[in-house]
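Dear colleague,

Following up on Tuesday's group meeting, I ran the structure prediction for the three-component complex that the binding team flagged. I've pasted the input sequences exactly as they went in, so you can double-check that nothing got truncated or mislabelled along the way. The structure tokens for the whole assembly follow below. Feel free to forward this to whoever is handling the docking comparison.

Inputs:
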Amino acid sequence: MTVILFLLIMGCFMCLYRVAMGPTPPDRAVAIDTIGVMVVGICGVFGVVTGRDFYLNIAIAWALLAFIGTLALAKYLEGRGFDE
Amino acid sequence: MDTLKRRLLDLIIYFGLWLLLTWSLDWQGVVVGAVLAVLFAIALSGLLPEKAERLFSPVRWFWAIIHLFSLLFWIIVANFDVLYRVLHPNLPIRPGIVKIKTTLKSDEAKAFLANSITLTPGTLTIDIIDDWLYVHWINVHENLEDAEAITRDIAGRFEVTLRRVFD
Amino acid sequence: MNSQVGLAPIILISTGVIFDLVGALGLIRLPDVYNRLQAATKCVTLGTFLVLVGVLVHSGWNAMGIKALLAAIFVLWTSPTGSHALARGAHIAGVRLWEGTVVDRYKEDTGR
């Protein structure tokens, strides 16, 4: 399970590369959304490793907040013009 | 279905969700959940659409389950498609935004069609305007003028089941 | 620490993690916002879904399994919706498509 956790966190760091280097703000928004969904999976794996169920509460709350945050970011992007 | 019945259904859904999330039949928890469910059903605007009596039709549920399984199959195909495109050294993509016309009528059906299209091989819905769906396609066909073939390739496999679920 | 994880959950979770990594790799390699969004949405949604189903299979029908199932359904439902919103926002904000793009009917029709 440690290997799986390591791989998931590595995936999050690959997304962070896009957050840091993304040429336009929407690229960064996409990467942040992806990290949000991955963290839900990380919480699930933590639940299996420790055998406690409150990590799944965190997963559900995180999924809700990531979704609402994505919608807010998208609405924010609509009002701005980014040309390169 | 009138408003009162829909609110009652909302209440049952909220309460069921509470019971699933807490997963205990301790009487204090159940009482708090019931009070919160009543408050939410009164305070929030309705959860269910106008024609909520369709929830009780077993034929629609049957087609919904068929749709879910076909969706899972196409999601797995889509993932292997992305795997091939991402790991290929030359990135074999030919993207473009096409538009397709859907024959589905209700808003819920269109929303589910858009979500289904997003999860299937190489396509991503960008916007819905009336009956037209604008779809970003990662590997566009050779002949762009053949609108019917494009519609059939992208949406045809889901419209059959979704029409039986929602319309 | 309970390290007694069965074979089926391990297979499900490992497959999910592999698809997560493919999605992240697509996010790095593909050329523009819309293509990245495609790879990220499809792969990361199925990856997280499989991880959570693996948690359900591991723990059975108790508090943890039900919560994992609810989170899985929620992710499967909302992740494509979020990606529509992001794609529409990016297009309205005027992010250019990749130069190899063949056609853009959305711009032709809406002028945005």
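Chain B has six helices and three strands.

Cheers,
M.
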